[in-house]
Amino acid sequence: MGQPKVTVLHGPNLNLLGVRQPGIYGYETLDDVNNTLTEIAEKQGWDISCFQSNHEGELIDAIHAARLDGTLAIIINPAAYTHTSVAILDALNAFEGKVIEVHISNVHKRESFRHHSYVSKRADGVIAGLGTEGYQAALNAVIKSCV
């Protein structure tokens, strides 16, 4: 058996991290986030795959791929799809590994429509409001609980 594997999925507009509303999302770029996660994962002997898409179907395809490639856990920031996508929920329900939902901002302090998450119905854990460090917290939780 090879290294344990985790997949990190970033939803719509996260490609603009660092430049879009930095007062809410900070100045760290998506590449910064992925590089930090890759460094942590590799030091712990994990294989990591990071993927961002603005397209719901591509995120669903990535979840389906994770079902088949030995992925033990998915860390997902579904962004705006959090509040709208039954399709992402259905795909995650077909994934047998651990699912951690991450939000950079505290969605519960924002507009009321952001308070509902379809993904949370499947998630084993939810991290919100820790900035981009929430991804690191999610990865550390996965590493501790999936081996």
Structure write-up:
It contains five helices and five strands, in the order βααβαβαββα. The longest helix is centred in the first third of the chain and has 14 residues, at 30-43. The chain has helices at residues 22-25, 30-43, 56-68, 86-93, 133-145; strands spanning 5-10, 47-52, 71-77, 98-103, 125-128. Helix 4 links the parallel strand 3 and strand 4 (98-103). It has 147 residues and is of the alpha/beta class. The record marks 20 as: Transition state stabilizer.
List its traits.
alpha/beta, five-stranded parallel beta sheet, 5 strands, 20% strand, globular
Q: Total strand count, please?
A: 5
What value does the average pLDDT take?
A: 91
| Residues in helices, as a percent range | 25-40%
Radius of gyration: 14 Å
> What characterizes the major β-sheet?
5 strands, parallel
Principal-axes shape call: globular
The main sheet orders its strands as 2-1-3-4-5
Give the SSE order as H and E letters.
Answer: EHHEHEHEEH
Assign the structural class, choosing from mainly alpha, mainly beta, alpha/beta, alpha+beta, or little secondary structure: alpha/beta
Q: How many distinct helices?
A: 5
Which range does the strand content fall in?
A: 15-25%
N-to-C CA distance: 12 Å
Lay out the secondary structure.
Layout: E1 5-10, H1 22-25, H2 30-43, E2 47-52, H3 56-68, E3 71-77, H4 86-93, E4 98-103, E5 125-128, H5 133-145
Parallel strand pairs: 1-2, 1-3, 3-4, 4-5
